[in-house]
Write a structure and sequence with these properties.
alpha+beta; GIY-YIG endonuclease; Nucleotidyltransferase, domain 5; 5 domains; seven-stranded mixed sheet; 20 helices; 20 strands; flat
């Protein structure tokens, strides 16, 4: 919509309460709002004050037309706005954000109901308590329920007909006294449902009713002289009192109340909710909302209260808020306390939401610092090496061999200044005979980038060669063959003085020893060296095992490994007595080793 569209509509706008809708060209609702006075509220979108909000300008530009509906009162407008937002979920209205799926305790709608933990709410008439923000807390509550009340855990259909027909038999849970056997009719339904009623009281925060029930049961056992049963109930009562003592008791005179507070920054709003039953806080939750326009705190709070009371199945008639608002349910009493215990409750909620906001800011700052740290290091490296591109993808090569035996190479990969270990590769050098580091480097670099080109995989911005001018020149030859030379920055690092060599430049570059860029190069070089040495050591160990022990007739690799594991080395195996070797590998293998040793000794003589 343009200002001209608004000016054309202005004479028809009423000075009445109602709701207004911004719609796209396709008729999609972009935003729904309410107003005490439609004319004044709509005018505010085209005044200078609102023009400073970027998202508001974007929404108005995206809107093709505006529609409005007059209502009898502001309260009716609030009801209609809430209904339309829930139904259409307009793009520019506030979005509720849930970071994860929270846990519930479900009392299943069935005969002899089960009580269990779930993350999914199914609207089948079952009763759900929660959500609980901590799975650990849910487990504690469920564990206490199992201690206090013996319930079934099976999923059988315990209809009267099935039980009378004898379709089920008691299971292990009955025999270990975790269940009273309703599947065989050993427990009356009214007794079972009495326990379920007490569980509902407990989860609803009606602790006094649960305590009265357990105390009454204890007294009945004492009167009947059932002292063992009375002792069991006493243990349950003590466990329940311990659980009750850990609930945050505010003031028993407050009874049932919902407490809400709000804090916000430029992009988000956070609403804290405390659910108080019989003077005790039984649940707390902070709802995060993403602001899409310049919503007023009053509107955000109203929207969050409605959502959270639905989410937590709250039916309390008293709601504590930090400032006056117009709420949907007229039968709900809104209180803005100035002193006393209710003010303390509001202060506790405000403290929670302020801390939550602070925590979010700290997390965002930490995330930014991490990002900035990587950018700072890579920028320092780019500047030190006079690169055009940021070296987000770095690869480093190193060779390893002993007098030409088992020549291998390694390639390690760094992304965003961090090792990407899943991309590390090691290579058996195939075309080189003898100790020739230059030829080995040329072969491996060629193989690496030939494959990346064939697979159309991303190439690095920086290649680091562990070695001086010779190894660097060999690697450059491979890049020239692949027509990559000049497209990728390649440098060599000499170990002794940490000199950085560039192709076709006889003079090395000396980077400041404290430079973060040099430290990253050193880290990549050290990682490549470690990876190559580890691979080479493993090859040598296998080769040594094959060439020493497995040359003895009758000794295979598994037997050799078994002997090495016990004795620790080949030298100790050969020095051991025949009896000691026979104990580990058997008499035949011990005899073969003895013949081998004697043969070796005879040759020396």
């Amino acid at each position: 919509m343009t200002n001209a569209d608004y000016q054309a509509m202005l004479p028809t706008l009423p000075d009445e309460p109602g709701i207004y809708k911004y719609l796209s060209e396709d008729g999609i609702i972009l935003y729904v709002g309410k107003a005490k006075n439609l004319k004044k509220r709509i005018a505010s979108y085209f005044g200078e004050k609102k023009q400073q909000y970027y998202k508001t300008r974007v929404m108005i530009r995206a809107a093709n037309r505006l529609e409005y509906t007059i209502t009898e009162s502001e309260h009716d407008a609030l009801l209609l706005e809430n209904s339309l937002i829930k139904k259409h979920q307009p793009r520019y209205n506030v979005n509720l954000k849930d970071d994860k799926s929270y846990t519930y305790i479900c009392i299943k709608k069935e005969r002899f109901p089960r009580v269990f933990f779930t993350r999914r709410v199914v609207r089948d008439g079952s009763t759900y308590f929660g959500p609980y923000t901590s799975k650990h807390r849910t487990a504690i509550v469920l564990d206490l329920i199992k201690k206090l009340f013996t319930l079934r855990t099976c999923t059988f259909n315990l209809s009267q007909e099935n039980i009378e027909a004898g379709k089920f038999k008691v299971c292990l849970e009955y025999h270990i006294k975790n269940c009273l056997g309703p599947c065989e009719g050993l427990e009356k339904e009214e007794d079972y449902m009495d326990k379920v009623a007490q569980i509902k009281n407990m989860l609803s925060g009606n602790f006094s009713e649960v305590k009265r029930h357990l105390q009454q049961e204890l007294n009945q056992h004492v009167e009947r002289l059932e002292f063992e049963l009375a002792h069991q109930v006493k243990i349950k009562l003590e466990a329940f009192e311990d659980y009750q003592s850990k609930s945050v008791v505010v003031n028993p005179s407050i009874r049932d109340v919902d407490v809400f507070s709000i804090a916000s920054d430029d992009k988000h709003a956070y609403v804290n909710y405390l659910k108080v039953i019989n003077g005790a806080i039984i649940n707390t939750y902070t709802q995060e909302m993403i602001k899409n326009l310049d919503e007023e705190p009053e509107d955000l709070l109203v929207y969050a209260i409605q959502h959270l009371r639905d989410k937590f199945n709250s039916i309390t008639s008293e709601v504590i808020v930090p400032f006056p608002i117009t709420y949907l349910e007229e039968e709900v009493s809104l209180i803005v306390p100035k002193r006393g215990d209710k003010k303390k409750l509001l202060d506790m909620s405000l403290k929670n939401v302020d801390y939550f906001l602070l925590q979010k800011k700290q997390q965002a700052l930490t995330k930014t610092n991490k990002k900035t740290s990587a950018e700072r290091i890579l920028t320092a490296l780019r500047d030190a090496l006079h690169m055009q591109e940021m070296p987000l993808h770095i690869e480093c090569f190193d060779n390893s061999n002993i007098q030409g035996a088992h020549p291998v190479s390694s390639c390690v990969v760094f992304r965003n200044a961090k090792p990407a270990k899943g991309d590390y590769r090691h290579y058996h050098v195939k075309s080189v005979v003898g100790p020739n580091d230059f030829a080995s480097m040329e072969e491996v670099v060629y193989r690496r980038y030939k494959r990346l080109l064939n697979e159309e995989s991303p190439l690095p911005q920086l290649i680091i060669i562990d070695g001086g001018k010779g190894q660097l020149s060999a690697a450059v030859e491979s890049l020239k063959k692949l027509e990559l030379y000049g497209k990728i920055t390649i440098v060599g690092i000499a170990k002794r003085l940490e000199e950085i060599y560039f192709p076709e430049d006889p003079l090395p570059l000396y980077i400041n020893k404290k430079s973060e860029g040099l430290k990253l190069i050193q880290q990549a070089r050290n990682e490549a060296h470690r990876f190559a040495i580890t691979f080479h050591r493993n090859l040598r160990s296998k080769s040594f095992l094959r060439s020493e022990l497995t040359e003895i007739p009758g000794v295979g690799e598994k037997t050799a490994q078994k002997l090495l594991k016990h004795f620790g080395s080949v030298k100790k195996i050969l020095a051991a007595s025949p009896e000691q070797r026979a104990e580990i590998a058997g008499p035949s293998v011990a005899k073969s080793i003895e013949i081998y040793i004697n043969g070796e000794v005879a040759e020396e003589e």
